[in-house]
Amino acid sequence: MPDYEKITWYDRVVDQNGQVIQEGTPLSATNMNRMEAGIDLAANVVGMLAVEALTQINTLKKELDKWQNQRVIQGIAYIYNKFVIEGCIISAMQNSRYLQISRTGTYSAGDASRVYVDGKLVLIPDEQMIAMVPMGDVSSNKDYYAYIDYDSATGRYKVFLREASQVPAGKLLLYKITVPATDQNMDLSAVTITSVRRIEQGNVYYTSDPYAIVSLPSSAYAQINYPDYDVHVTVEDASDVGRVGQVIVYDKT
Q1: Phi, psi (5° rounding) for residue 49?
Q2: For a surface tag, which of 34, 54, 211, 228 has the fewest beta carbons within 10 Å of its beta carbon?
Q3: Of 31, 50, 71, at which residue does a domain stop?
Q4: Rounded Cα distance, 65 and 62, in Å
Q5: How far is residue 47's CA from residue 25's CA, in Å, rounded to a whole number?
Q6: In-domain check, residue 214
Q7: According to the model, what pLDDT value does residue 162 have?
Q8: In terms of domains, do 96 and 165 share one?
Q9: Together in a domain, 58 and 96
């Protein structure tokens, strides 16, 4: 079967009685101009409809963006509930730039500190030479943090030492170690070791609450009727959901 079949068109109009009421279309400048005017009008109408449709789509998109990014702002905040139950005292080893960790402040083989990390109680054994503190770099003082994290290579939790900007989020911080720019000593006599431990001796009622600070984009305040906006929170997941108490929004600034 051919893809195209020519059709014979008849320029002839017959009424219901068979009487010819129009035969042939008189071609004239007037009729041709009318046809062109009609085509032009139809094209303009279609164009206007297309522009209106695109305008409405753009308006809806902008409105949706406002709801997603301003009027309704949503996201996930992580609260890390990690703390030291007992010990985890870090101190300098004599005549070296090494650090040691102990339960009492004095190294004792076989002794261990207790911490709560990742939803479980963990023992951190007394250990010497856990990390070497770098010397000063002359340009400026530098801060380092000793923190606890899981070490997949050894299969246990241990102490790591990293420069402040390189510490991963959510780790259990123990101490801040400040190294003066001019420190070129072979020991840690010029280094300041400051405890930043969160210590909770009981694990039912805390003396300090874990929290997270959430920052909003400055462009959002006008749309959310600042400062009279509401914040709703729900717990989506936890390392130990059974131990999660209330989640409270306690301040808006």
Answers
A1: -65, -40
A2: 228
A3: 71
A4: 5
A5: 29
A6: no
A7: 94
A8: yes
A9: no
Residues in the chain, overall count: 253
pLDDT tens-place string over residues 44-84: 777 777 777 888 887 778 777 766 655 667 778 888 888 99
Q: Which two tokens stand for residue 136?
A: 């000063």
Categorise residue 252: left if φ over 0, alpha if ψ from -120 to 50, beta otherwise: beta
CB 92 within 8 A of CB 117: no
The four Cα atoms 192, 212, 82, 205 give a dihedral, to 10 degrees, of 110
| Predicted pLDDT at 132 | 94
CA 18 and chain centroid, separation: 79
Domain range for residue 148? 83-195
Out of 144, 169, 195, a domain closes at 195
Write out pLDDT tens, residues 153-205: 999 999 999 999 999 988 999 999 999 999 999 999 999 999 999 988 865 66
For residue 1, pLDDT over 60 is answered with no
The number of angstroms, rounded, from the C-alpha of 232 to the middle of its chain's C-alpha atoms is 17
The beta-strand segments (E) located in the chain are 12-14, 20-23, 83-86, 89-92, 98-102, 112-117, 120-125, 127-132, 142-151, 156-163, 172-179, 192-195
DSSP three-state, residue 106: coil
In angstroms, what CA-CA distances link 18 with 10, 48, 129, 183? 15, 42, 112, 114
Q: In what order do the strands lie in the sheet with 127-132?
A: 89-92, 98-102, 127-132
